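Reminder to self: tokens first, then the designed residues, so the page reads top to bottom the way the pipeline ran.
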């Protein structure tokens, strides 16, 4: 009977060891949960980047611009012809930018067509992250009349004349592949010898 207290002491101490073991298991479970959560979050971020980055850097990103280099003829009453430079550029890392045969350019002033180029007989493509240029001649197609002619004459005399250019892209030009739509890009407020404004795809309207 004299050893029972020692046994009772042992019995009373056991839960303390059991509690410590439970606490350690809970702590380990918490660490494992945090590790799993961190892994899941990191995986989601990596997967998202793997999806977004290719779209951002390798998606279609074509840009078109037209510059008016010079005008042939100084008298609007006799018609004006325009020497143009068409620039095709790809800002994508994975896609080229193209125009297909049939592309042509029109020049306007005050909403009146002054000149137009003949349709291109060959396609033109810029490799990814590259640009190419094409010289284009837009021949006189009409002569404005009335107030438009007067305004054009005065603006040319003052050297402040601005023209509008419309670039017509046939089916498949935008992506360099066969498509179902034609595109018309408008570049407005262009001056002779000035910097070519970008007629970006965001400005294009389906015809």
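Designed residues (207 positions):
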């Amino acid at each position: 009977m004299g050893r029972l207290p020692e046994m009772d002491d042992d019995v009373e101490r056991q839960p303390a060891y059991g509690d410590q073991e439970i606490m350690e298991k809970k702590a380990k479970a918490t660490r494992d949960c945090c590790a799993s959560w961190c892994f899941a979050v990191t995986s989601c971020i990596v997967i998202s980047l793997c999806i977004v980055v290719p779209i951002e850097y390798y998606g279609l990103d074509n840009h078109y611009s037209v510059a008016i280099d010079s005008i042939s003829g100084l008298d609007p009453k006799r018609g004006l012809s325009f020497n143009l430079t068409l620039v095709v550029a790809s800002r994508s890392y994975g896609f080229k930018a193209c125009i297909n045969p049939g592309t042509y350019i029109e020049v306007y002033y005050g909403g009146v067509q002054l000149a137009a180029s003949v349709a291109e007989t060959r396609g033109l493509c810029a490799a990814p992250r590259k640009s190419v240029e094409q010289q284009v001649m837009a021949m006189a197609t009409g002569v404005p009349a009335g107030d438009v002619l007067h305004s054009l004459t005065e603006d040319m005399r003052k050297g402040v004349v601005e023209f509008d250019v419309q670039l017509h892209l046939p089916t498949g030009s935008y992506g360099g592949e066969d498509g179902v739509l034609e595109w018309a890009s408008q570049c407005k407020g262009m001056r002779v010898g000035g910097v070519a404004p970008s007629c970006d795809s965001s400005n294009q309207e389906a015809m």
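Residues 62-206 form a domain with the Immunoglobulin-like fold (CATH 2.60.40).
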